[in-house]
Amino acid sequence: MATATFEQIVEDFEFLDDWETRYAHVIDLGRAMDPLEDALKVPATKVEGCASQVWLMPEITDDRFRFRGDSDALIVRGIIAVLAALYNDVPVKEVPKIDARAELGRLSLEEHLSAQRSNGLKAMIGRINKLATEAA
Question: What is the pLDDT of residues 63-115, one digit of tens each?
Fold first, then answer.
């Protein structure tokens, strides 16, 4: 059920030999994202449960889910980019049906994150599902 963009990340990860290189790739994905405007970095868009500052801004158009996000930590910004690749442009009603743990498991990402980052990832996924459910 993954998007073509997410599938490309999976393919890229298969070619990267070690986790240092994979982390660098995730960070590069985050750097390539447009930053979230400061005016959108408000309590309503902030994700609670993350060690870093994280903001997610949903954008629902033609029943398609999209979000933009930002963080003050480079690796977390990269994780946001990975999640955007997984969820963006999916029909809003399908978002909660995505098994994010299984999809991200294809990257072995979570097992290489600290406990705090892993908890933050769960919080971001929970927030995305909540936003999509409210919009549906």
Answer: 999 999 999 999 999 999 999 999 999 999 999 999 999 999 999 887 888 88
pTM of the full predicted structure? 0.95
Contact 83, 56 (CB under 8 A): no
Question: Which backbone phi and psi does 112 adopt, to 5 degrees?
Answer: -110, 10
Q: Which CATH number fits domain 4-135: 3.90.1010.10, 3.90.850.10, 3.20.20.140, 3.40.50.10610?
A: 3.90.1010.10
Catalytic annotation, residues: 50
Instruction: State how far the Cα of 62 lies from the Cα of 80, in Å rounded to an integer.
Output: 23
Q: Which amino acid is at 85?
A: A
Q: Show me where the domains of the chain are located.
A: 4-135
